[in-house]
Amino acid sequence: AQSVTQLDSQVPVFEEAPVELRCNYSSSVSVYLFWYVQYPNQGLQLLLKYLSGSTLVKGINGFEAEFNKSQTSFHLRKPSVHISDTAEYFCAVSDGRGSQGNLIFGKGTKLSVKP
Amino acid sequence: NAGVTQTPKFQVLKTGQSMTLQCAQDMNHNSMYWYRQDPGMGLRLIYYSASEGTTDKGEVPNGYNVSRLNKREFSLRLESAAPSQTSVYFCASTPSGVSYNEQFFGPGTRLTVL
Known about the structure:
The complex is a heterodimer.
Chain A: E1 4-6, E2 10-14, E3 19-21, E4 23-25, E5 33-38, E6 44-50, E7 56-58, E8 64-68, E9 73-78, E10 87-94, E11 103-105, E12 109-114
Parallel strand pairs in A: 2-12
Antiparallel strand pairs in A: 1-4, 3-9, 5-6, 5-10, 7-8, 8-9, 10-11, 10-12
Chain B: E1 4-7, E2 10-13, E3 19-25, E4 31-38, E5 42-49, E6 56-57, E7 64-68, E8 74-78, E9 87-94, E10 104-105, E11 109-113
Parallel strand pairs in B: 2-11
Antiparallel strand pairs in B: 1-3, 3-8, 4-5, 4-9, 5-6, 7-8, 9-10, 9-11
């Protein structure tokens, strides 16, 4: 069964500093990976996804993630964060059963951006 | 397009009361899901429906029932609420005919059971 590990439960960072949120998944023959963001008191919205092709994926709000098959990782990065990036971020992997299946979510990383 | 909508947004129940959480999507998606979110636990799947007329248990189904009323609507029922069911509940949906299960989420229902 697929699993997802988000290595940091909380990441504090100062405004305009770079940030990396780490995500590792259990290996599979084919894998689709996602990052979702949840702003306070809101639902989850898709930040970016990796389906195939280029291992560097760009998303909304200046975020990007790199798919690394050998390390089974899909870390999320942003070169310069803003106060408005304060949110909880979830990494997810498809369980391989397509639209009949599910997403497996990590436990989330709370990003706190301080002025 | 409203996307995925959930009602109510907030609810307070007493132990033993029942209630139904409603979810609807207007994107013609086949698959729909119910999750609960608790601090430090991420999202845990309660039930899902891969298509109209089918439902399956997820990771934490005990204490819940679901109904896929039609393609648009998927409701979650708590027959006898318990304090352990205090949580934020999210509904989600996925388009049909795709291999990668990208999910679209509603805004959530915040439930407190006293």
